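User: structure tokens for this one?
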Amino acid sequence: DVQLVESGGGLVRPGDSLKLSCAASGFPFPSWAMNWIRQGPGQELQWVSSIDSTGDITHYDDAVKGRFTISRDNAKDTLYLQLNNLKTEDTAMYYCAQPNPRKSNSYLARGQGTQVTVS
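Assistant:
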């Protein structure tokens, strides 16, 4: 079974930084592009960032571009998201997600999430 386990969230002040991790298992992680998505209080699920299988190609939502950095370590089956210069509007549950290759903005699996609160 696919398992995605996020960690690294917390309560921080505006301008602070956090690094989120996602440990993957149950599928060939190095062969898959991966995403970070988030859901703020009372909001819909929002795509944040994506990375290709090799880590060479990354994409970001405009709201986080220049502040967040997605990366991966295929030797450790781990996905990361570095969050810098955090803003109150970044408060959300953050999930790593395995994208559905047959349907955009759709996911085959996601983890239980890690909470980021900026206040």
